[in-house]
């Protein structure tokens, strides 16, 4: 009797243990939202992060059969949006759409960023990379990066916004290529591009979405792209690295959730995001904007973010940029 009872207890314990072992996997397979999910974008409507986020949100809404609502929380350094996301419940119903600048530059260039990406967030899914283009007015005598390097006078560089990713990419280009840039700050990408179109500036560095229509319309000329490889659809435009060895600068986007979000929920969102990024419609829409999906694991996003933070920390130090 005692031996039979002991065997019965052992069997029950084994079943219970198996249940606990498989519970996270089962939750990851079964979790999906039963009410709308909020995707916080720390940039204004109409900007590249906002457009990129809304396309992904739409695809996730269809996959989950549940609304994914984009909430814009704009402000200096993306701080208001990042703080709002960090303070949200860690239950999977709030995710942050984080551009490169919010993950790497704000913590370095603001004395009080008010959030800590490493301790207040968990990585969920990489979304994609978005290289920049080095562009000039189509009427300019500057045809190549080599021409830019030969310029005798100082070249007015329209910085989309001080301490933004395009600004830093331009400063990196000037330093690495020994170019004679004179930085003129503008209040955003649209203002910088307008200065280029009007002839008030000679060159700018901007994301593909902000300049592609002007390039196709013959108003701007792209000298190079800042990625390490030529871009699909823009194969005739060389990379900066073909002229200035070792140069690369990327914009990128990732999804992060408040710290404490259950790993199984993170994995479930990661899986649906990767599925969305493989959908032909989204791939095409992103390609039209110069955005290239980079699906992967939460661990891969964590490693990539760490590498980018290290790279940008070195450049901030090299350029002697001071926190504000």
Give an account of the 3D structure.
The protein is of the alpha/beta class and 324 residues long. Helices cover 46% and strands 20% of the residues. The chain has twelve helices and ten strands. The protein has helices at residues 2-30, 48-64, 79-86, 100-109, 117-120, 145-150, 165-176, 189-198, 208-216, 263-277, 280-288, 298-318; strands spanning 37-41, 68-72, 94-99, 121-137, 155-159, 181-185, 203-207, 220-225, 250-258, 292-293. Strands 1, 2, 3, 4, 5, 6, 7, 8, 9 and 10 form a ten-stranded mixed sheet that branches. Strand 5, helix 7 and strand 6 (181-185) form a beta-alpha-beta unit. Helix 2 packs across helix 10 (263-277) and helix 4 (100-109) crosses helix 12. The chain is globular, with a radius of gyration of 23 Å. Mean pLDDT is 89; it is low at 1-28.
């Amino acid at each position: 009797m005692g031996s039979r009872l002991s065997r019965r207890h052992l069997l029950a314990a084994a079943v219970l243990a198996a249940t606990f072992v498989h519970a996270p996997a089962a939750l990851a397979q079964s979790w999906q939202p039963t009410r709308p999910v909020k995707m916080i974008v720390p940039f204004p409507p109409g900007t590249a992060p906002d457009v990129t986020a809304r396309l992904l949100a739409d695809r996730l809404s269809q996959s989950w059969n549940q609304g994914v609502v984009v909430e814009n929380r704009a402000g200096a350094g993306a701080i208001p949006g990042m703080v709002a996301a960090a303070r949200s419940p860690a239950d999977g119903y709030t995710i942050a759409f984080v551009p490169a600048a919010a993950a790497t530059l704000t913590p370095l260039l603001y004395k009080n960023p008010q959030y800590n990406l490493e301790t207040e967030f968990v990585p969920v899914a990489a979304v994609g990379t978005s290289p920049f283009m080095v562009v000039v007015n189509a009427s300019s005598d500057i045809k190549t990066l080599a021409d830019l390097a030969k310029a005798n006078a100082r070249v007015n560089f329209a910085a989309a916004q001080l301490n933004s990713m395009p600004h830093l990419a331009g400063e990196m280009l000037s330093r690495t290529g020994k170019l004679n840039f004179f930085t003129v700050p503008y209040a955003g990408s649209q203002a910088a591009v307008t200065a280029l179109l009007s002839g008030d500036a000679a060159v700018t560095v901007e994301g593909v979405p902000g300049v592609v229509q002007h390039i196709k319309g013959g108003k701007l000329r792209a000298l190079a792209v800042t990625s390490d490889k030529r871009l699909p659809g823009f194969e005739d435009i060389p990379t900066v690295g073909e002229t200035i060895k070792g140069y690369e600068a990327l914009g990128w986007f990732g999804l992060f959730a408040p710290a404490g979000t259950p790993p199984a929920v993170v994995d479930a969102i990661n899986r649906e995001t990767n599925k969305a990024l493989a959908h032909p419609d989204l791939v095409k829409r992103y390609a039209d904007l110069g955005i290239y999906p980079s699906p992967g694991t939460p661990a891969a996003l964590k490693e990539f973010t760490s590498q980018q933070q290290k790279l940008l920390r070195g450049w901030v130090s090299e350029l002697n940029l001071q926190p504000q």
